[in-house]
Amino acid sequence: MDRDKLERDGSTLVAALEHLTGPMRGRVTWISESSAVIRADGRRISVSGESFGDAAPPDAIATLHRSADSYEIRAMDAQPIWVNGEKVATIDLEHLDTIEFGELGPLSRFRLIGGSHRPHWNLDDILSDSVAYARASRRPMPQRVATAAGQLFHRLAVDTTVMFRLAVVAALIVLAAFAYQQYRTSIRLVERVESDAVRLEGVSAAIRRARDEALSPSDLNTLREELSLQVTSNLERLEALERRSGASKRVISEAAASVAFLQGAYAMRHIESQRMLRYVVNAAGLPVMTPSGQPLLSLEGSGPVAQIQFVGTGFLLGADGVLVTNRHVAQPWDSNSTPESLSVQSFEPLMSKMVAYFPSIGPAFEVTTLKVSEEADLAILSVGVSPPVAGLSAAPEPPDVGEEVIVMGYPTGLRAMLAQAGRSFVDELRNASETDFWAVAERLANAGLIAPLASRGIVGQASDTVIVYDAETTHGGSGGPVLNHLGQVVAVNTAILPEFGGSNLGVPVASLMDLVEAFRKQ
Question: How far apart are CA 333 and CA 337, in angstroms?
């Protein structure tokens, strides 16, 4: 039946049998006559508008008669018919009823088109109509395409079944949800890649700084040339300090044995894969460098595990001998003193080694972290085997503004101690080509050359959270004790502010004692 025959007002009614099973499955038989005969040839159904008298055709199985706004179906004698699963002799059909003809079928769906029942076209018909219009129309191409697209979307929204429209909406929702999920996944992936890139860049920068601070054969030559001048300068400064105050000499002499040189290294492990961050090496086994001069690092690297070396100062406190230092020394990966912060989610730091050297005591002491403060730059450490050294005592009161203090520590780390060691010692290292981070410290300790430097300053500000003083110190002195004229600890040296005339910051000893008390209560 022509499609334009169906585009009518509500007074015209057309019926159709949509065949669901049998040889005609997927086809539609249209019914527009007021009366029709349904015939069966095996499982093949046909409908004709012919009339017959008392003698029905032998292959007739049912008749259809217009009844109000539908059709009445009547089963022929001895011909079973089921409507919606119930065997019937005669019944008024309703839109979307299912009819099964005979014991073996076939099964058909009854559809009404017209009146309150709109025709619904399949997707192929709608698409072919739009394509046909776009090809045959004589309008300009832009208008032709726009009209065809408009008709296509209009008919998809109006002429299709409700289930089709719901399926399309559901598919669009699923597609939108999938697209959004993919977008969020892409964003997270980009953030993770950027975060990992920042992390690797930060690790590389930290390794480069540690490498720049490490010793090389050329550094030993430079030290040898400048040694006399440096030693003379240090001795003159110390002698001037001692001349100005006999108490200072006593304080330095008594406290020096309790001030430890801290040396450590840590590596980075990928949390998800548990793989260590390694150097990327070339065919000769040498680290590959980036254009910015930093070592190239990768989880897939075949080189050794990348380790970040650090130094600092600590001191024994009290009779139980806990070792005190800064949090940024005990956990250097959390330091915010540089833009290359190493704290991101995809990696976790692993302390490879941390040791403490005490003056005049040869072997290194293994060190572990006991507790770090969340409020102040403080940490307390444990020394595996207690050294035969007495701990310093804490001052009962904070220092007054204008009071003199003494800061002790190991500023510039190994370089300062080599400068004090003498030319012969440096010559031995140079001849042995020993510049390894760990080996140099061990040789200094075995030679009895581990000793802290002391500087004197004036307190410029004192509060419950910070002590400000102008004593000279630099990198490596972090974690050292700030002492009053009685040799009591008034603060823990934590930071230098060179832009403010060399002012230094210390954490008041009261904060330190709160941390120690909290640890003892655990």
Answer: 10
Task: Please give the average per-residue pLDDT across 345-351, as a whole number.
Answer: 83
* pLDDT greater than 50 at residue 283: yes
In whole angstroms, how far apart are CA 437 and each of 210, 267, 295? Answer: 10, 15, 18
Token pair belonging to 502:
């060399």
Cα 357 from Cα 364, distance rounded (Å): 5
The two tokens of residue 329 are 């020394």
Phi-psi region of 61 (alpha: psi -120 to 50; beta: other; left: phi over 0): alpha
Query: In sequence order, what are the beta bridge partners of 203?
Result: none
Could you tell me the two tokens for 186? 């892409």
Start-end of H helices in 245-270: 246-255
**Predicted confidence (pLDDT) per residue in 108-133, tens digit:** 889 887 655 555 666 776 777 677 66
Q: Is the pLDDT of residue 520 over 70?
A: yes
Q: In whole angstroms, give the CA distance from residue 491 to residue 483.
A: 7
CA–CA separation, 36 and 55 (whole Å): 15
Question: With contact defined as beta carbons under 8 Å apart, do 199 and 344 qualify?
Answer: yes
In the beta sheet, which residues pair with residue 265? Answer: 309, 353
Percent of the chain with pLDDT over 70: 78
Can you spell out the DSSP letters for 124-184?
Answer: HHHHHHHHHHHHH--S-HHHHHHHHHHHHHHHHHHTS-HHHHHHHHHHHHHHHHHHHHHHH
pLDDT at residue 262, rounded to an integer = 95
Residue 88 backbone zone (phi > 0: left; psi -120 to 50: alpha; other: beta): beta
Gap between the Cα atoms of 446 and 466, Å rounded? 37
Range with the poorest average pLDDT among 158-167, 174-183, 222-231, 452-461: 222-231
Q: What is the tens place of the pLDDT at every residue in 27-58?
A: 888 888 888 888 888 778 888 876 665 567 78
Distance in angstroms (rounded) separating the CA atoms of residues 515 and 372: 8
Inter-residue contact 489 to 317 (CB < 8 Å): yes
Token code pair at residue 417: 């101690």
Q: Write the single-letter amino acid at 328.
A: H
C-beta atoms surrounding 12 within 10 Å: 13
Residues 46, 48: Cα–Cα separation, whole Å: 7
More confident residue, 384 or 73: 73
Helix axis angle for 423-432 and 217-244, nearest 10°, is: 160
Angle at 210 between CA 204 and CA 213, to 5 degrees: 140
